[in-house]
Design goal:
- By secondary structure, the protein is of the alpha/beta class.
- The chain is built from nine helices and five strands.
- It has helices at 9-21, 40-53, 73-84, 98-103, 114-122, 133-142, 152-156, 159-169, 185-193, and strands at residues 2-4, 30-31, 62-67, 89-95, 182-183.
- It has a five-stranded mixed beta sheet, sandwiched between helices.
- The two termini are 13 Å apart.
């Protein structure tokens, strides 16, 4: 079960991954929201509501997928703590945001200059159509990108490369979430493909 902060971007990706790369012994469910409210605690509450309504088996995994970007460490810490105390819950944070995971499918950011990596982590809006740095970089790579309309299947064709790149970026795996430019979505991708 996956509950994500983003209303569309993450769901588009995971729906495509479910269709194309889900292991035969895995069943993926993606929770959707009808409103625009999003925060780590809203995502956590959404998955808790699911747990109340459905029976959870011992081997079920529930994933709380959120961005680091605008949330305080205190907000992330409380949800991380809830997840830590529940053996079914996994806390999956991208720093600064989910678009970093998407970029890792098409670009090895470990080869970039420190200046470029700082710009990625800051993820400020640019003057070009008001997109954030990472959204604009995705547009440059893919030809077009909008969080509610992009070719996730094209990206999933290189998911193993993205997993490897994200794993290498995650240099402090003992931290509850990435403190530097990194994403833990690779852990979720691995669990969908190879439980």
């Amino acid at each position: 079960m996956i509950a994500a902060e983003g209303k569309e971007t993450e769901n588009i990706y995971f729906e495509a991954m479910k269709r194309l790369r889900q292991a035969s012994n895995v069943h993926v469910e993606i929770l959707h929201r009808n409103d625009h409210s999003s925060s780590p605690i809203v995502v956590y509450d959404q998955i808790q509501q699911f747990k109340k309504e459905y029976n959870i088996d011992d081997d079920d995994q529930l994933w709380v997928v959120v961005d680091r970007d605008k949330w305080t460490a205190k907000m992330l810490k409380s949800v991380a703590q809830y997840c830590y105390h529940d053996p079914h819950l996994n806390f999956c944070v991208s720093n600064p945001c989910f678009e970093l995971w998407l970029i890792l499918h098409v670009e090895d950011i470990s080869t970039l200059s420190e200046e470029e990596r700082i710009k990625m982590k800051a993820n400020r809006k640019s003057s070009k159509r008001g997109a954030t740095f990472l959204k604009q970089r995705l547009r440059d790579h893919l030809g077009s990108y909008h969080e509610s309309n992009y070719d996730a299947e094209r990206l999933i064709s290189t998911v193993e490369v993205a997993i490897d790149r994200a794993d290498k970026l995650d240099t402090n795996k003992q931290d509850r979430w990435p403190q530097s430019l990194s994403t833990r979505v690779y852990l979720l991708a691995r669990s969908i493909m190879n439980p």
